[in-house]
Design brief:
This protein is an alpha+beta fold. Helices cover about 55% and strands about 10% of the residues. It has two domains: about 140 residues, no CATH class; about 100 residues, Trna Endonuclease, Chain: A, domain 1 (3-Layer(aba) Sandwich). A hairpin with a 2-residue loop joins strand 2 and strand 3.
Amino acid sequence: MDEFKLPIDSNKFRSTNQTWNDLMLNDPWSVGYVTTLIAANDFPTKEEWENFYYESGISRNNSIANLNDENRELINDEQLVLKNGAKVKQLTWDLKNLNFQFGRTEEQLRKKGKILYEKVKDNGYGLTEEECFQCVRYRVICETWNGVVLREVNTIATLKRLLPQAVFEKVDGEFDHQYAVDYEVYKEGKLVYGLQVKPESYTRSTPYINKARYANQQKNAAYTAKFGVPVYDIISSTAGNIINSEIIKTL
């Protein structure tokens, strides 16, 4: 399988990392549970996954069209979770799922690109609005494919060869978002630990990554408190080669 390549200069892309997260444009409220969406089908190519995501956004729009004006405005506010997270929590399950369980159209990703552009256009990297859209598209669609379909699948295949006694079960997007756990691992029918599969960049020390690691550590702690087992990070390449190979002795 092919991986998506970053379509813009990597320094420009990285310069938007912090703002992307500060705006919470990566929240499932804004883009859906992408790990659940990509698990919905076996996509033979990355292009079919991208088309599916956009088509799911069209289905979402059709459902939203039947809402009253107040609810339609709430659901279409991609930054509501940033401005008023309590209001999101108060919405009915059916309404929240219109954002969580569907993709977005290309036009809607372009709107997020414009929001990003307005915040980073003067950051010294000369980003254009089109480049900001490509940042959004790459994070939502491309990194999901590269990370879930390629890195995660290849990494779990590697772990299965190294740990034949273990059973790896992929969690859904909602569970992943709540606990920062990609897989639960069982031995002899008993849950023994959770796993996060991350790229090498996750080990770097930058404000953006440090913040993400801290947030994931809090989620992992909540998982351990509830289920009584630890969570381990697996750092791997897209091909599934495990970079922090010393972790295998723990597993």
